[in-house]
Design goal:
The chain is of the alpha+beta class. The chain has 6 helices and 13 strands. The structure holds 2-oxoadipic acid and magnesium ion. 2-oxoadipic acid binds next to strand 1, helix 3 and strand 5.
C-alpha cells in the first residue's frame, strides 16, 4: 500500500515565491523523492489556481548529456502548464526569469487518454504526432544546484517550452538517430542525436507511462510530452535568437528579449 506523503507547505511557499518574485532560493537538500512529487503537485496547483491549465508532461535526465551536466542520474517527470507555452518564433522575456537555460528536445502529442490499466508500451498507440521543441529551464535554486528530490519539488526546473511544426507519427519515419542541434545567433553551440534520449527517443513514452502508473498521473488526450533534452542546456543571452533543430522534423525558434541587450 502506498501512503500519501505530507506536503512540505513551507517548501511549496518558498518555491512559489521564487517563481513569482523571480529570485533564487537556497536548495532544500531534500532526499525524499515521493515527498518531492507531492510538493511539485502542490506547487503546480498554485499556477492552476492563478488560471493556468496543465497542457502536458516533461521528462528530465533521459540523456547522459543532461545527467552529466547536472550530476543527477534518474529519470524525473514534471508538469507543463499553459502559462509556460511560448509560440514558435515568439519571444522570451528575461526579466521574468532567474537564470534561464535552453535545451533542444523532441515533443510528442497524445491523441487519446492513456488508461492506467493498459500496458505501458500501449502509450505508443496513443501518440499521433512528433515535433522539434525547445525547453526553457530555470531552476529556482541558487546556481542550478540541487538534489534529485530538490529538482522534482521544483517541477523539474520547468519554466517554458516551444513546440515546432508537428509531423504525424505515421509520416515521420524512423525517429532514432536523428541529429539534434542548438543554434544561437547562427552558431551551432550544442549537437547530439535523438538516440541520446534513453537510446531511442520513443523509449521516453513507456518511461513516462511507467512513472504515470506508479505515481497516479493521468495522461490525457491533447497533452504534449517533452522527451528530455538531447544535449546539455545553455544559458539564454539577451538579444539572441535560438533555434532547435531535429533533422527530418524541422526546427523551432525563439527570440530572447530584455536585460542588458
Ligand atoms: C532539470 C530538468 C532536466 C531534461 O530535459 O533533462 C530536463 C534541470 O536540468 O534543471 O528538463
Ligand atoms: Mg528538458
Amino acid at each position: 500500500m502506498t501512503t500519501t506523503p505530507r506536503v512540505d507547505d513551507a517548501l511549496v511557499q518558498r518555491l512559489d515565491d521564487a517563481v513569482t518574485g523571480v529570485r533564487e532560493i537556497r536548495n532544500a537538500e531534500a532526499t525524499d523523492v515521493d515527498a518531492a512529487y507531492a510538493v511539485q503537485e502542490a506547487l503546480v496547483a498554485r499556477r492552476l489556481d492563478r488560471g493556468a491549465v496543465q497542457v502536458g508532461w516533461k521528462l528530465g535526465f533521459t540523456s547522459l548529456a543532461k545527467m552529466a551536466q547536472m550530476g543527477v542520474s534518474d529519470v524525473i517527470v514534471g508538469r507543463l502548464t499553459s502559462d509556460m507555452l511560448v509560440p514558435d518564433g515568439g519571444s522570451v522575456d528575461l526579466p521574468g526569469l532567474i537564470h534561464p537555460r535552453v535545451e533542444p528536445e523532441v515533443a510528442y502529442r497524445l491523441a487519446r487518454d492513456v488508461s492506467p490499466d493498459e500496458p505501458v508500451d500501449d502509450i505508443l498507440s496513443a501518440v499521433d504526432a512528433v515535433a522539434p521543441a525547445l525547453e526553457i529551464i530555470d531552476s529556482r535554486y541558487q546556481d542550478f544546484r540541487f538534489t534529485l528530490a530538490d529538482v522534482v519539488a521544483d517541477n523539474t526546473s520547468a519554466a517554458g517550452f516551444v513546440i515546432g511544426p508537428w509531423t504525424s507519427l505515421r509520416d515521420a519515419g524512423e525517429l532514432g538517430g536523428l541529429p539534434v542541434s542548438l543554434v544561437v545567433d547562427g552558431e551551432v553551440v550544442e549537437t547530439g542525436s535523438t538516440d541520446a534520449i534513453l537510446g531511442h527517443p520513443l523509449k521516453a513514452l513507456p518511461a513516462l507511462a511507467g512513472m504515470a502508473l506508479r505515481r497516479g498521473f493521468r495522461l490525457r488526450a491533447g497533452q504534449v510530452i517533452l522527451a528530455g533534452a538531447a544535449t546539455a542546456a545553455v544559458p539564454l543571452r539577451p538579444g539572441s535568437g535560438v533555434v532547435g533543430r531535429v533533422t527530418g522534423l524541422g526546427s523551432v525558434r525563439i527570440e530572447v528579449r530584455g536585460g542588458a541587450e
